[in-house]
Amino acid sequence: MTTSSYCFSSTRNPITHSNFLFLNSNLYLPKHRNHVAFTQEPKKDLIFSIPKSSFPFSYPKTYHKSTQPSTHPFASLSESSQNQEHVKEEEEEEGELPGMAQAFNISSSTASAISICIAVAALSLPIFMKTLAQGVSLKIKVLSYTTLLFGFFMAWNIGANDVANAMGTSVGSGALTLRQAVITAAVLEFSGALLIGGHVTNTMQKGILVANVFQGKDSLLFAGLLSSLAAAGTWLQVASYYGWPVSTTHCIVGSMVGFGLVYGGPGAVFWSSLARVTSSWVISPILGAVASFIVYKCIRRFVYSAPNPGEAAAAAAPVAVFLGVTAISFTAFPLSNKLLIALAQALGCGILGAFVVNKIIRKQLGHLLEKAQAKAAKAKATHHDAHEESTPKNIGFLSDIAGPTGTQLELVYGVFGDMQILSACFMSFAHGGNDVSNAIGPLAAALSILQGGATGGEIVIPLDVLAWGGFGIVAGLMMYGYRVIATIGKKITELTPTRGFAAEFAAASVVLFASKLGLPISATHTLVGAVMGVGFARGLNSVRAETVREIVTSWVVTIPVGAMLAVLYTWILTKFLPLVF
User: Fold this and answer.
1) CA distance 484 to 482
2) CA–CA distances in Å: residue 450 to residues 325, 459, 546, 573, 581
């Protein structure tokens, strides 16, 4: 895959089947390190037991206070008031933990140790990189070291904000715990950045800025590149702190526009390219919402309403895998330049993927499928099949269909939970390969200027620089990614494995085909729209308007804020760089 330039001419693109977290707005979730009980009020008296490690994130104290019942939920489990006070003290102690420790259910000292190790690695690893050794003088080496740190800062913030595209819905639905999601994403993001991150990037001719405007102004261009990385990273960090999922491509584009407009004039900006980027604010979420709405309604119509929903889900999974693998193989990774051969090979890959997934599902859930089939046959023989009696004969596509219960629910969630993990893994791998260019493109161009390379044409990206960007993404994900994951997974609408799969599958499909057709698209905006579409399929009140309003506002201000920060940082750097450059 060829990476986009730093001017970016195109837009960027063990689950346990018995325990799922039904995330409703009226759940009381007490904090406890081991298994806890929570109750649902006021409709049903249901008690579930779930390990705290499966929570996608920890709720703030204000949430507990606003929903806490008058009777302490542990009262029925404790034998004395001393036990209650012990639980209360433990909750208070845990509430004082820093965010990273609380999110991963680790001690504060462990979280601090991890952060220190990452910081030490970020400061020391560039010294041993081959790219740094290419500096002919100590001054160039110092500037190259500084440039690598700027690139790491941008990559760190990409990991903190953008990786939620791949893992947020999986954590929110309970398909993966936060710890599992981070480990999985860390491996796949780094692998994607290193293996398919693209070893060649273009400069500014076909992107946002006009290259000829900055010919002979290497010092100014170098300052602009560093300022763009710093500005985009700064805004991403602010957005991540508040849990806003924003587009990293829009951040870097806004930064480049601000620099080019102020220091190169209106003629330095390709305004048509900028218009395409801003149009994705509307196109991406709408396409994502429509696609996920259709996918989720199909699941409810053809799986939930089936006589045996578990068997229907197990049969639908290979079909989804076949469609997904075939489309990916044909559009993103064509195996031949000839249409018929490429199509045949893509179909072969799809059939192989469907066969493997079907075998895995039958092996993992075979006992539950047999149990459900036996129960359905017995109920049918005695004419007490409650599911068939309660299901209308003529069901419309938009009809509100009640979901399965008991073993059938466990089967459906098990199948779609596994499917969601597969889709999340693919999105994570693809994200690492695609979005690492947002940090590595400007970084590679700045290093090329320092080493006397041309400011036009193609720039070869060294392998160690790609690995450096992958490390930055992983570090940001581990230290700060839980905030945006919480927004995607919980705060827009409640997710289950079926809803999460519908959102992820729809978003991946839209991004894949829109990118192939050259439509302006943003993966972040598409996924947010897809999550909203799943919520709309359950009713307008299922989507939290306040959260959506905050997210959309953050989208609108991303490019202007990035532009202003880039201008400020460039002004500062132009005062100091002449002293050393």
Assistant:
1) 6
2) 43, 13, 47, 15, 9
